[in-house]
Amino acid sequence: MLTAWRDEDVNDLFVLFSDPRVTRFYDIPTMQEPEQAARLLAGLQQRFSAGTGIRWAMRDRDTGEFMGSCGFNCWDTQSRTAVLGYDLMPEFWGQGYASEAVSRIVEFAFGGGLSCGPLMQIEAKTVRGNRASERLLERLNFRLFDDMATGAIEQPDLKHYRLLQPQRFGELVLN
Ligand SMILES: CC(C)(COP(=O)(O)OP(=O)(O)OC[C@H]1O[C@@H](n2cnc3c(N)ncnc32)[C@H](O)[C@@H]1OP(=O)(O)O)[C@@H](O)C(=O)NCCC(=O)NCCS
């Protein structure tokens, strides 16, 4: 299940982001101090109240155990485009949890559940070589954005994916 953050999540957030397996493909350093998790948690809560993005805590439905996080790091209200993010505790990898959670929030966001209104497009950036992340996006029908064609090659080590709102995708195909 996906829930809001609780103050006591700070310890689990530290466990998550102090694990080098989790941060292996991140451009942020692996956490060293619990203080860093406290700052991150404050930022996640602030983002939620400011309405500039949303990250949910993922928890086991039965036990409530913290599993990870997913959500939209930010969005642009004009283009109705949001940037997706997700990370899971390694003990839960490879069991379909992230795919399940991400497909639910994608549906929610295209359906108008976010405070910015129904999204038209979702973007995701993943470091080359992060096969689990690439597979997750491909499985959910995200398409590789052709940075070479557009000339938008700001970060060559990143793969840039996007998913259009299903109705809009239909319109583009018909046109
Ligand atoms: C990316 C991440 C969230 C995937 O979580 P997950 O719950 O293991 O993903 P799923 O079980 O839903 O699997 C998604 C796909 O990735 C594949 N996959 C999972 N782990 C893999 C691995 N280590 N290598 C290659 N493929 C892998 C699965 O087989 C599945 O593909 P399939 O549909 O073809 O079978 C998880 O690996 C993670 O938290 N990584 C660290 C943080 C991170 O890199 N986040 C992404 C930042 S862009």
UniProtKB/TrEMBL annotation:
State the signal peptide span: none
Q: Which domain of life is it from?
A: Bacteria
What InterPro entries does the record tag this protein with?
Answer: Acyl_CoA_acyltransferase (IPR016181), GNAT_dom (IPR000182), N-acetyltransferase (IPR051531)
| Residues passing through the membrane, by range | none
**N-acetyltransferase domain: residues covered:** 1-168
| Cross-referenced Pfam families | Acetyltransf_3
Name of the featured protein = GNAT family protein
